[in-house]
Amino acid sequence: MKLQFIPLDYEPFDYNGRNYIKVVGRNEKGKKICIIDSCDVYFWAILKEDAPEKRIKKIMEEINNIKIKKDSRESKVLKTELHDKNYLGKPVKAIKIFITNYKDAHDVADKIDFKEVEKRREYDLDFIAKYILERKLKPLVWHEIEGEILNNSTEFGGIDASMDIDCIKVEKIKELKEQAKFTPKILAYDIETQEIEIGKGNILMISLVGENFKKVLTWKGEPNENYVEKLKDEEAMLKKFVKYVKKYAPDVLTGYFSDGFDLPYLRARAEENQIKLNLGIDNSQPVFSRGNMLTGKIRGIVHIDLMRFIKIAYSQYLQSETLSLNEVSSELLGEKKLDFNPWNAIKSGKPDWNEFFKYNLQDSVLTYKMAEKIWPDLLEFTRIIQEPLFNISRDSMSAQVENYIIHNLEKFNEIAEKRPHYDEIGIRRNREKYVGAFVFQPTPGLYEDICFFDFSSMYASVIVSYNLSLSTKTEDKKDSYESDFNGKKVYFSKKIGFFPEMLKQIIEKRRHFKEEHKKSSDPILKARSNAFKLIANAAYGYQGFFGARYYCLEAAAATAYFARENIKKAIKEFEDEGFKIINSDTDSVAIELGNKTRKQALEVQKKINDNLPGIMELDLEGFFKRGIWVTKRTGEFGAKKKYALIDENDKLKIRGFETVRRDWCKLARDVQNKVLNLILKEGNEKRALEYVKEIIKKIKNREIELKDLIIKTQLKKPIEEYKSEGPHVAIAKKMREKEIPVDIGMLIEYYISEGESKKSLIRERAKLPDEKGKYDINYYLKNQILPAVDNILEVFKVNINEIMDGKKQMCLGDF
DNA sequence: GGTCCTGCGTTACC
DNA sequence: ACCGGTAACGCAGGACC
Asked: Which of A88, A164, A334, A807 is deepest in the core (most CB within 10 A)?
């Protein structure tokens, strides 16, 4: 039979000692099906250059006889072939060794011990990746499949009988030229529990939200809405949950922090109730893996913890200070969680159950809507990197870069480099640091008419333009780029390597799809352009990452080196043409127009661009009406990485200031923001000063609400490990005493109260938000408000210190 | 008992 | 353990007078 098929989930299995794979996806009619397939399993023995032909033949014969006996499985070499390949950019002769089971690849590789064999490679590749490469059945891409349906067949031990859906044994696979739109069936879920610790208390309710589908399952309260279904106990509720998930048959089951909470909790409660959480398409239970970080896998359904993907692909664009569902959904959707405190409700012993149900449902509604919104990004990441959706939604950016490389090596006839071993990682992690970016020392002051330029994807374009990678590093000084690594000269060949070449294509695609998106504003094109951008930007970090297959610290150092050279050159160009440099950080230059025109500035930009190497490009970020740079708190120098700009539409761009730092109280941040606004919008420092004085008065009169004085600091490690005990650590201790749950990663909230003696430490005066006490007027004036506005007003020669004390009126002459 | 300096710790920028 | 270096700055803690 012939059908169209889009793969969603890949699951390898063994049968008679051989490797097979079940791929669950949908056909063109939207029916969920499973295809069964297999592929060659092999790895490489790379030969030394001088290996004589006769010996190679002999070696191949010997390899052909390798057999491994392990547990109940017998594994052997099926055949060998001699190929011309590339390894790290150099042509090599390599023996392709076909084996019966990939799980034994490592053991077989260990048996290949000939002096003519230089290296053994690709025995550490993941089977799913290998399968996708070999059979070209790409995730979330439509294919035409030819095969035979298994109908209660005894093949594979009667695999089709154990599955809820049709199984097809595949013969031919062909990617379709016309790609129809694919909209996944998404089901979102969320649970409410008695305790925070996994499995400790009961699950009180479970909500489910899909398309035209909403449900709250519970065994508590007296429901007054018909979407709430009351079961007799927790066990019945869990069974019903499984039943509904199976009936809905989603492609994607998604929760928010569900890897770390919802799914393991469900699993634990199922165990406690002695029932099976058989959500899998073959009625298997979720499988949890990956050491520290839990990940929950459900066969045949792609379980996605939305929070993890948002953290990977979105967090750098988000303003949210935490990745909590409430904050992220209100930023992405403009919609919030319901105002209801589940822990207080539980503690009270008499929760308003109907409010609780609504609250529970809303969490799934938000999760569902966000999943829909983020789907284009998941889709495009998956299609570009060609790893299963399950991995795409969880992998770190360095893993995404590496997977992209692995799935694109074929074009270069390259054999993949191996993953570093444990001891190698240890060495890499202890390596010396290298010099990073150049940061300009700004002069404090208020500036008018500012032009802001920046290099587009600078580090990525440096890697491409100077050909910086592991395989292009060379001892040969001729025809190469010379860079510096902590005083040592390092060279990179000018003959383009596969890593820079791949990156070049990524950048080109990013530029292409960015243009395409401008024309059509299709969200898919935006997601595609964004995915290429993120991969490009992660390429630099990847080469310096200790876990990378293509780790090359010299390349990472050279990237920073050539970036410094180019930014400094650009700065010099602007200076030589008579522009004053205001700021520069890594890849950007801000200049003051002064008595020159925008046109003149753009001419310099063009001149710079004409002389830039390779694909490097200096873009105009924009024009700004005004901008402010301040001094460091200590010393007379201008502070780096702290400035505020206002564009022609009166939109502020604030960097580094307390306004954007979450470890300052809201009042200080708001006041600073207002002051920056007044100064930048109207150039009115007098109004700003008046405003600050009003606030000071309010603080002194205790007219400020406590919630605006709460300071939030993250607990980054276990309480015991702190060498120096800051206020947030002291509060964390206090919380633990009060049996309030404290976890690593939590934002600890506190305010500073008046102490008995003035000299006591700040941590001794720190109190929990609901602890009774008077806020310390002096602390909030001197440690929060003053530091937030002092440096800004100083630019106008206003000494706020004196105003605070009320000793002397301002220094502004005309005040 | 106060001042100064240093290191820890967090968060930002790019 | 899951990308890099550069930088500001509060607070604690100890040296020093």
From this structure: A88
The residues pairing with A81 across neighbouring beta strands, listed in sequence order, are A96
The DSSP line for A102-149 is GGGHHHHHHH---TTEEEEESTTS-HHHHHHHHH---TTS-EEEEEEE
Q: What is the pLDDT of residue A682?
A: 83
Does an H or E element contain A667, and which?
Answer: helix A666-682
Task: Tell me if the pTM is above 0.85.
Answer: yes
Span A285-309, mean pLDDT?
88
Residues 715-734 of A with CB under 7 A from strand C: 724-727, 730
The whole-number average pLDDT for the span A508-517 is: 93
pLDDT at A272 (0 to 100): 95
Burial class (CB in 10 A: 0-12, 13-18, 19+), A540: buried
Query: Which nucleotides of strand C are protein-proximal, with an atom < 7 A from a CB?
Result: 1-13
Task: Give yes or no for residue A12 having a pLDDT over 90.
Answer: yes
Q: Fill in the amino acid letter for A526.
A: K
Q: Give strand letter and number of the nucleotide nearest A723 (CA to C1').
A: B8
Percent above pLDDT 70 for chain A? 97
Residue A321 · residue A331 · CB < 8 Å: no
Determine if strand C comes within 7 Å of the CB of A546: yes
Q: Measure A486 CA to B3 C1' (Å).
A: 39
**Protein residues in reach of strand B (CB < 7 A):** A 321, 437, 454, 458, 585-588, 641, 654-656, 660-663, 712-717, 721-724, 726, 728-729, 747, 759
How many Å from the CA of A633 to C1' of C6? 17
